[in-house]
Specification:
This protein starts with 5 loop residues before the first strand and ends in an 8-residue tail after the last strand. Helix 8 packs antiparallel against helix 10, helix 12 packs parallel to helix 14 and helix 18 runs parallel beside helix 19. It folds into three domains: about 190 residues, Methylglyoxal synthase-like domain (Rossmann fold); about 120 residues, Cytidine Deaminase, domain 2; about 120 residues, 3-Layer(aba) Sandwich (Cytidine Deaminase, domain 2), CATH 3.40.140. The chain is built from 19 helices and 21 strands. Helix 15 links the parallel strand 12 and strand 13. The strands form five sheets. A six-stranded mixed sheet has the order 8-13-12-11-9-10, sandwiched between helices. The chain has a six-stranded mixed sheet with strand order 16-21-20-19-17-18, with helices on both faces. Strands 3-2-1-4-5 form a five-stranded parallel sheet, sandwiched between helices. The protein is α/β, with parallel strands linked by helices and about 525 residues long. The longest helix is centred in the middle third of the chain and has 27 residues.
Amino acid sequence: MARIERALLSVTDKTGLAEFARKLHGYGVELISTGGTAKLLRESGLPVREVAELTGFPEMLDGRVKTIDPHIAGGILAIRSNAEHMRAIQEHGIQPIQMVVVNLYQFERFAAKPDVTREELIENIDIGGPTMIRAAAKNFQDVAVVVSPSQYESVARELDFQEGSLSVETHWGLAKQAFAHTAAYDAAISTRLMQIGGKENSEELPDKLQVSAPRTMSLRYGENPHQKAALYGLENGGIGEAEQLHGKELSFNNLVDLDAAWQLIQEFDNPAVAIIKHTNPCGCAEQQSLAEAYRRALEADPVSAFGGVLALNREVDEETAGEVSKLFVEAIAAPSYSEVAFTVLTAKKNLRLVRVQPLGRPELVIKSISGGLLAQTSDTAKLDPEQLETKTARAATDEELRALLFAWKVVKHVKSNAITYAREGQLISAGAGQMSRVDSVKAGAMKAILPLRPCVLASDAFFPFPDGLEEAAKHGVTAVIQPGGSVRDAEVITAADKLNVAMVFTGVRHFRH
């Protein structure tokens, strides 16, 4: 490959740029730049030629027009082996550019700001940057395109090895990364703009699903050691953007369980703790203090809690940390940790501690199937107690009703067919993932360590037959909450009346597959 004689540099993320530009300058490369990038390079003692000097036009329209000019596009796109191309640029005084170093306005980070307006989003869409990147990638045989500070070190190393030039293979590799970069950028813009309301956006799901997420973490393996895995972040809070503060590296399964736990505790306003094992809650409680919520959550199933994952919806305090430290757990998610709590928990060197921020905006739930992707809106339905319909002769007592509402929040996060046994503010047991609902009732009762009698029960979908409710009554269930909607609702209600079990319908189903 020919030596690099001229490079255009225009970046938003200026990390490491001065050092990289100094490497180019050392090989006699002429540096061309714009605005803040040019200022940085000058302050670093490097000679810079302004784009305006090259094009003959100043930056204009509040910076919207800087590099959109034939002197730039021609210098990038001209095929050096094409005599007609070279004659044309020479005739018009266009100088060839052999390297483009460009990264884009950080649209995704800006778009995550609360209450951002449509106008602000539009103004933070880069135009000239993607144009230069795509032009350079298209003409990869003659132009090297660098789109990320993470590429500087390897490119600089090859420049040293090749004495100021890069191999064809490197040019091609950089071009492929450049096209991926602009594709992800456009997808991020499209996805975010589709979330802005208006007559043109009446559909909740897009006609074309655009997913843009940079890889933020390479994982040792996936669900099993023979599977490869990585985490891709959406810059929107939640577990995908959690900050790991301590402990061993997070695994694929840790992240899945942490997300299940974190989503569950978002249901509660008072201090709450969820203990998750293989995505299902084996303990959950909402109490007046975080430490008491943890103790109540652990009571439900201390055997399964061993090696589980925890989420807490308050800052972890000293008392709670002291209680948690008695149990072996894999990972903990919380909004923050007090200084003393952090000291207590970090005494366990392998315990993974992550700090999590709430989601910035609603997200689609996406799952892969062979040959396609399924997408749905999040299950954010909140139950209004005033909309509950009492279907039995006996109404639930105030204590039973509070327990039912708690059980309903938890059952939403149990794999279907899902059953939860609960008392006020405390999960007693859960029956998860059975092929028949009556088997989930039996499984939950069988798993119970705390006494079931008396307790309430929640079912994520209707009872198709009276047998599930009758089985629940055998174990001391005094009240039931369920969606209703079965063709045999009347039979189930009759069975509940015979057993003196209060039953309320929600009209809302919470399958979780």
